[in-house]
Structures are given as C-alpha cells and as structure tokens.
Q: What sequence folds into this?
C-alpha cells in the first residue's frame, strides 16, 4: 500500500448532513492524514457539522466561504491553499461530501496517480440498473458530446473523484469557472494542455437517487454544454470563413482560366489554387482560435497538409465526378461552383474529426 501522507483530500461541501461525518470517518480509516474541508457558504443550521469535525479531527483544515460561490470556486480555493501551504505535497484527491465515493476507491485512485504520475478519474458504471435515469441520461449525453465535438473518450464526465498531481494542479487553478462547469473545464484543459489522465473503475453509489445533489439539471447542464459546443462553434466559424474564401477563389480562378483550360484541367487547377489559399487561412485560424492546443507549429502543419492534400484530391475527383454525372458544361460556372461547395461540405465533418484527434492533438506532458 502506498504512503498517503503527502496527499491532501479536497472536500467541498454545501449544507451538509450526517453523510459528511461518514465521509470524513471513512477517509481517516483508510489512511488519509490531511483533509482540506471547504464550507461553501452553508446555511447557519448546517455549520455545526464543519465546526464539530474540525474540532474533533486535527487532520482537517477548514476553509470558509461566507456566501455560496460554487463548487468550482471551492475547489480552486482548496487547490491554492494546498499549493501555498503543502510544499512537500505530491497532489490532491477531490471527493464529494455526499458519501457516494467509497474511501477504498478514493485510495485506489490515489495509488494509481502515485504510480503513474497521471491525473486519475474515478469512473462509475452507468449501465447498472440502480443508476437514476436522470444521471444515466446526463452522463451518456455529455460523454457522447465530448467524444464527437472534443475528441475525448471519458466514461464518467461528471465524476467528482479525481486524483490530481501537484504539477497539474498548478495549471488547473487558472482554469475558468466557479460552479459545476469548472469540472468540465478541467477536462477540456486536459485536452488543450496535453495533460495525461487515466480512468479507474469505482463503485456506483447513489443514495436516495442522488436527491442531495445541488446540481440544477437545466441551468447547470446548459453551463456545461455551452462550453463544449463553443469549441465546435469556433471550428464551424473557421470552416465557414475558409469555405467562403475557398469558394470565391474557385469561382474567380474558374472564370479567369476558362478561356485557357477545360474539363478536368480547369477543375484541377482552380481547385488546387483555391484550396491552397483557403488551407493556409484555415490552418492558422484552427491553431490560434479553435483548438488552442499545445502543439508544435511545424509538426501540426505537416499533419495538416498530410490531411489536406488527400482531401484536396478527393475534392477535385468528387467534384469532377459530379460534373460528369449531371452533365455540367465547362461554361456553367454558377452550377459548377454550387457542386464544388456541396462536395466541400460533405468532406467537412470527416476533416473535423481528423483534425481534432490527430492534426492538432496536443503533445502530452511528461
């Protein structure tokens, strides 16, 4: 068993009940020796839980928020306290105060983190029958959105059990968000900053169908989903701008070269010229504004054109094939341009998936 003396438990809580006592007792029983307990603006009638626990257990350091600031703010406050006051600390593990994280699972996540140096997510099994429908639907939806729009495979996007090494913590304290969306922003930071993470399977515990949760389904879900969809929205804007430049360039080149070229030659030369102009614009928009990833420009550009060149060939061949299929003449410039644009849109989604997973995939931190 690993020595947990240089790890701190971060335990944010709002309006706790007796379950918080059980959480603390379990953590101490399983060998944790430092608990940073955060009262996130609880009601006066609930404050005695914090005071009694801090008085009874010297292993607890209590942080207070006079008003409720949100789970994200509570986590970041505790992270900063750890970095400033635990110079020898190796990392933290975040735990929810509703007694739905078994201390044995908490320890297992910490031991995996100490062995690998990676951030560890404690992930539940949402296929089990006793999982509340609201939780099952919410996690499956968020996991699917992460996979499609961000290119991350995470089986439990909503887990509050996360073991985080010290060096990663220094980056996460600067991540935006004060409420539940902060935990989503943490996951997005893993992607953009190339932070390696692993999953450890944990017990799937729901007490009274998670009625004690402070998660507001509509309001907090929207705060989370708009973060993920904003990532895709930026890509769409970048693609639309590049598509307009590409289409206009193609139309202009087709018009200018029509007296000199015809058939496949006209399509190829116009397509190559248009794609060269638009691809350079698209590369720098994606790198700077869309993916914002920790990537080497030369490596990313090589990968970008390793994708762009076959895509350019596919664009030309599919466009010319459509011209032949619909018997479009070389002089039908307007219809030629429409077909070219439609083919480009069809290739758009494939390009997005490859770019986010390979071209602009960040180099993982060591």
A:
């Amino acid at each position: 068993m690993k020595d947990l003396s240089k790890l701190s438990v971060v335990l944010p809580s709002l309006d706790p009940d007796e379950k918080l006592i059980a959480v603390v007792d379990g953590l101490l029983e399983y060998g944790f020796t430092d608990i940073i307990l955060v009262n996130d603006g609880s009601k006066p009638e609930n404050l005695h839980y914090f005071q009694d626990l801090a008085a009874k257990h010297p292993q607890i350091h209590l942080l207070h928020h006079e008003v409720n600031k949100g789970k994200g703010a509570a986590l970041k406050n505790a992270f900063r306290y750890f970095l400033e006051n635990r110079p020898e600390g190796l990392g933290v593990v975040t735990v929810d105060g509703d007694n739905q994280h078994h201390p044995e699972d908490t320890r297992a996540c910490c031991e995996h983190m100490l062995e690998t140096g990676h951030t560890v997510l404690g992930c539940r099994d949402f296929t089990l029958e006793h999982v509340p429908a609201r939780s099952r639907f919410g996690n499956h939806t968020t996991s699917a959105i992460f996979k499609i729009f961000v290119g991350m495979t995470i089986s439990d996007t909503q887990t509050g059990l996360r073991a985080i090494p010290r060096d990663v913590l220094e980056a996460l304290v600067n991540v935006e968000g004060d409420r539940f969306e902060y935990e989503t922003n943490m996951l997005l930071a893993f992607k953009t900053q190339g932070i390696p993470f692993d999953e450890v399977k944990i017990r799937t515990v729901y007490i009274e169908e998670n009625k004690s949760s402070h998660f507001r389904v509509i309001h907090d879900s929207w705060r989370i989903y708009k973060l993920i969809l904003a990532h895709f929205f930026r890509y769409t804007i970048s693609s639309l701008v590049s598509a307009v430049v590409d289409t206009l360039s193609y139309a202009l080149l087709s018009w200018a070269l029509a007296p000199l070229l015809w058939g496949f030659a006209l399509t190829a030369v116009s397509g190559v010229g248009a794609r060269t102009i638009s691809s350079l614009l698209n590369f720098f928009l994606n790198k700077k504004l869309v993916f914002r990833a920790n990537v080497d420009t030369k490596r990313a550009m090589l990968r970008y054109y390793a994708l762009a060149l076959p895509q350019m060939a596919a664009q030309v061949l599919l466009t010319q094939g459509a011209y032949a299929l619909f018997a479009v003449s070389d002089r039908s410039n307007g219809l030629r341009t429409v077909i070219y644009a439609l083919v480009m849109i069809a290739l758009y989604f494939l390009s997005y998936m490859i770019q986010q997973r390979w071209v602009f995939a960040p180099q993982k931190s060591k």
Notes: The radius of gyration is 26 Å. The chain has a mean pLDDT of 87.
